[in-house]
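Hi everyone, sorry if this is the wrong subforum. Our group has a chain we'd like a structural model of before ordering constructs, and none of us has done structure prediction before. Sequence below.
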Amino acid sequence: MKINNSGTTLVEVMISMVIILVLVVGGAAFIYYASRDIGFERNRVVALQVANSRLEELRADLYAKIIPQDLDGNLYYNYNLYYINYDVNNKKWVFNSIDPNDTVSINKLSNLPITTTVQYVDVEPADAIVSYDYVHVTVSVAYRLGSSDIVKLETYIGP
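Answer:
Right subforum, don't worry. Here is the predicted structure as tokens:
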């Protein structure tokens, strides 16, 4: 008498279910992390565009308007780092020694910090003449709340 063992056993079915479960969980994790990273990258690209736009605004303006000065137009004759933001009401750049906590909205995320700094650079500091040969401008934009993820663009602008 011949015994027919052509059917599948319970152990074989369980092993195949575990293999399928591992593949499904791995695929779901891949899709989750990929979509999350795509969202982060989208926000980073927009933050980069915002930072570039701020730099272009500064480049397009006259050099005399982005020289650190007080509200009366008196120049600050030093090489300190100053924060700068645009006052929409008065249509001019405003300089501060402390961060004015400027914010921007990116892809439904609001109140993301944008920081713009200017610092004068003198090419020949030994000439004893206070002259601002050019300014070093830095724009930093955060693109995730509660994180240190920022894009940072730097440039030098001359007269």
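For your construct planning: The chain has a mean pLDDT of 82. Residues 10-157 form one domain.
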